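RECORD TYPE: inverse folding
INPUT: structure tokens
STRUCTURE:
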């Protein structure tokens, strides 16, 4: 027997499930959030919900939004259940559930993004926040910044009243606010990008300047773009997660599972006010970059160390990768020898201690975080999480052998066939191009590095190129297990 999730049914949910104690009907909106995936609901929306549970932030409720047609399915699921979500926290030996209610509406999805633009232009919206994935920021690694030549960006520059992109919609809304006197809002990125606020500012201001330089100047001067670091492992929802919430007695079409850890570090730069997230555990500090670098390099970079090896060896989840002796040994050696040396400490934890914490979190077998999910969008994740470490190591005359093997594993994975002969389904926005290049790289390894939009000048570094070429050749000739063993044993011999 399950109870359909809705406002009306909150009081009759199973007693062990925590639910909102605040009056959701009295909530007033203050935030439009674009990108209502699992991570947002387990992280930013949870922090706001916790404030509301304390009787605070009642005028900061979230209105959800999306800019792509596929967002409509999530909108339908959430509106059917009054925008409530069941969060299930999974620890190795226990679990708990909580229904959060900080989101109160979800805007219609339209090609012109007119409902989104209109709602953001209204003065009660003081923060527009984003989780649109790393690839959603139109960053071109080959030029080191915003890709103003992308077709969607060119469209928005030529048609500012009918934007396709999130940034075009933000620019359109800010123009209305400037002209109406409603004033600026804060644009808050919650994606895994180092300097996510600065990257977001560049995207919004550069796009505005393409069509309206005066507006661009106003946005740059008046709006805030705080940098932040977000951290919580949140798997995708599939049949197992749906069954889990059903077993708890709740009919929820969009439940979210997550680990028993969260962190949110935020630069306190909000031009139109903000909720007091620090009262429920968020950290406001000007030192976001140090926290950010530690997390992005050790956690997000560590994910990439594991995921491609796991995919090639048909290891289903990140926890399974950590239980695999060879993959785990590879992970621990790369983290210790080639990532931790290029991370600065932050208050209360050293890079080595944080790496140990990440190994423990990754080993949580209750979290079914698939290697496929973690390996997704490597064309954005490797330039963001791995390549900056390689550049720092090369500049310091440090070791990059294991990181070169990480890149070779990615190239081998993009050929589209696992070691057992099974096919790897498309797993990147540019999968076809990657697959074509990966196949060519079997005969000429440097073909992979010549993807300048990914590697830039790294392709010209002989130390990196030679190591990559050696590892890719070994992967193709001897297989993944033998190659990982060669790297791990090499370290043991030393």
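DESIGNED SEQUENCE:
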């Amino acid at each position: 027997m399950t109870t359909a999730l809705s406002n009306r049914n909150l009081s009759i949910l199973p007693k062990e499930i925590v639910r909102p104690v605040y009056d959701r009907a009295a909530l007033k909106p203050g935030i439009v959030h674009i990108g209502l995936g699992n991570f947002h609901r387990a992280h930013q929306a949870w922090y706001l919900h916790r404030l509301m549970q304390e009787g605070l932030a009642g005028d900061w409720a979230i209105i959800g939004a999306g800019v792509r047609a596929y967002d409509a399915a999530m909108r339908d699921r959430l509106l059917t259940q009054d925008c409530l979500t069941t969060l299930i926290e999974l620890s190795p030996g226990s679990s708990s559930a909580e229904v959060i209610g900080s989101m109160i509406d979800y805007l219609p999805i339209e090609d012109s993004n007119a409902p989104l633009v209109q709602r953001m232009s209204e003065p009660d919206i003081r923060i527009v926040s984003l989780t649109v994935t790393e690839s959603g920021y139109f960053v071109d690694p080959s030029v080191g910044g915003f890709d103003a030549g992308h077709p969607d960006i060119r469209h928005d520059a030529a048609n500012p009243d009918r934007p396709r992109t999130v940034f075009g919609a933000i620019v359109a809304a800010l123009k209305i606010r400037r002209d109406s006197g409603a004033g600026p809002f804060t644009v808050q990125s919650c994606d895994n990008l180092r300097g996510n606020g600065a990257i977001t500012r560049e995207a919004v201001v550069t796009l505005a300047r393409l069509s309206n330089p005066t507006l661009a100047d106003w946005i740059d001067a008046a709006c805030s773009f705080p940098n932040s670091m977000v951290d919580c492992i949140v798997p995708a929802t599939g049949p197992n997660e749906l069954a889990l919430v059903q077993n708890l007695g709740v009919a929820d079409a969009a439940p979210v599972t997550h680990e028993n850890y969260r962190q949110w570090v935020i630069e306190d730069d909000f031009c139109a006010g903000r909720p007091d997230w620090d009262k429920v555990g968020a950290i406001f500090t000007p030192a976001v970059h140090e926290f950010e670098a530690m997390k992005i390099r050790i956690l997000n970079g560590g994910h990439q160390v594991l995921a491609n090896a796991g995919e090639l060896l048909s290891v289903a989840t990140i926890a399974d990768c950590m239980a695999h002796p060879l993959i785990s040994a590879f992970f621990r050696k790369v983290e210790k020898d080639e990532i931790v040396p290029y991370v600065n400490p932050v208050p209360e934890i050293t890079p080595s201690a944080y790496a140990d914490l990440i190994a423990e979190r990754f080993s949580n077998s209750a979290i079914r975080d698939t290697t496929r999910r973690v390996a997704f969008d490597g064309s954005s994740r490797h330039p963001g999480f791995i390549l900056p470490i390689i550049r720092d190591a090369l500049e310091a005359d440090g070791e990059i052998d294991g990181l070169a093997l990480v890149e070779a594993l990615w190239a081998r994975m993009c050929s589209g066939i696992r070691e057992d002969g099974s096919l790897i389904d498309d797993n990147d926005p540019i999968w076809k191009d990657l697959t074509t290049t990966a196949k060519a790289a079997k005969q000429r390894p440097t073909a992979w590095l010549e993807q300048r939009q990914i590697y830039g000048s790294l392709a010209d570094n002989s130390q990196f190129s030679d190591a990559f070429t050696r590892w890719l050749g070994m992967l193709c000739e001897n297989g993944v297990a033998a190659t990982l063993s060669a790297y791990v044993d090499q370290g043991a011999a030393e």
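NOTES: The mean pLDDT is 96.
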